[in-house]
Amino acid sequence: MKKPRILLADDHTLVLEGFKKLLEDHCDLAGTVEDGRALVEAAEQIRPDLILLDIAMPRLNGIDAAKKLKRLLPEVKLIFVTMHADTAYISEAFKAGASGYLLKRSAGKELVQAIQCVMGGNYYVTPLVTKDVISSFLTPGQPRIAVADDLTMRQREILQLVAEGFSAKEIAAQLKVSHRTVEFHKAKIMELLDLHTTADLVKYAVAHGLVASS
Question: HTH luxR-type domain spans which residues (predicted)?
Fold first, then answer.
């Protein structure tokens, strides 16, 4: 089988180096990135066969990055490698377009197995969480971790960037919109979520997995 071209995304350099070592004999490494927005930009240029990504990434979380990636590159395969074992995260990852889901405590050989499985057109979920995932499908009313459904993709992006400490001016530059547009969206987010301070927005973003707790 032809080696898949793979793009690696994680905000920890040691994790990226570990991925490279594990996969150098099995894949063609097309590049590495350390945040969600850089991932989307690199993927559009490189057009890899497969992307490994985390859920908690700076500037754009993995769930929202995955949604953008599947719109831009419908054929690309996505495998999440993350610390999050909660079934709600797993559900959101697959709804966003994932083909595989592993934990960072999974064995190294399992990552190679997952890649082979996914490139063969199948789905892969680590056995470390499989029982919980099956149980979640049998249990109605499972909680969702996604930010409130009445927030748009742009509002989720702005919420994450606000929670990461970027100013409205900095967010406007990153998203290529006006300062006023950012302020408008921020006010709308606070209204929709019934939050009243930037600190409340940060707490909400942490609680919903958009940013990592410090």
Answer: 144-209
